[in-house]
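Thread: "does anyone have the structure for this chain?"

Original post by V.I.:
We have the sequence but no experimental structure in hand. Need at least a predicted one for the grant figures.
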Amino acid sequence: MSIDLSEIRLKTGGGSAWIARCRRPTSLGLSAAVLFTLTACGVNRVLPPPVVAYDYHDRHPVVIAEAPTSIDIFPSPGSARLDSRTVSRIREFVDDYRRFGHGQITLLSPNSGPNVRSSRFGAEQVRRVLASAGLNGSVYVGTYPVGDPSLAAPLRLSFVGIKAKVAGRCGEWPADLASGSSMEGWQNTTYWNFGCSNQATLAAQVADPRDLVTPRAEDPGDIEMRMRAIGKVRTGDDPSTKWQDKAGSISSVGGN
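Reply from O.Q.:
Generated one for you, tokens below.
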């Protein structure tokens, strides 16, 4: 079977125009031409990646960066002495500095206000605690201006080191959520700040930022528990652990 397509004309208002001129193709050739045409008209379903990431983990990633770590110290009013809780905080601060920090520790006291003298005495107390922890020559002492004298002005300890934080800033609104003049806010996608506070809270709660990069090594196994279980197996006893309380058995670990 063959179709004569020798002359195909398109009638227009000004006459006729040529569309195609072929030489009596066979049915096999026509089928191949139609198949090639349909293949060329197929829709490419591979879309380019979005300019703005849809997942908040990609839009607000938690990164390891060089950032300051600081604490505020409020000496006891009047005497400017440091209580045991404050001393413990300073020692924990020193431990964090040795693990993650580098350079000098900065100790700043307010340069104005009603408690300037007590703040200076409190700074001396902080320096003694730092010296007792082995940090005698790595402390820079300075002052900072007080914006509102009516507010409590603390002593500030800080160092620079590795810290987990969100790569960008939260609270920015680069696009309108309900734009009436365009279709920009009609894509049914998450807004820019979505998930940023969760990421910032997670970064602030990480005790060791290095845990986000690589896992810690496993602790060695309990040799005594292992040998006790092996000994029971050798004697034919049940190696499972049974937990008992006053009300009775609460669980059976490893039993049937």
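V.I.: this helps a lot. The chain has six helices and eight strands.
O.Q.: and Residues 8-36 form one domain.
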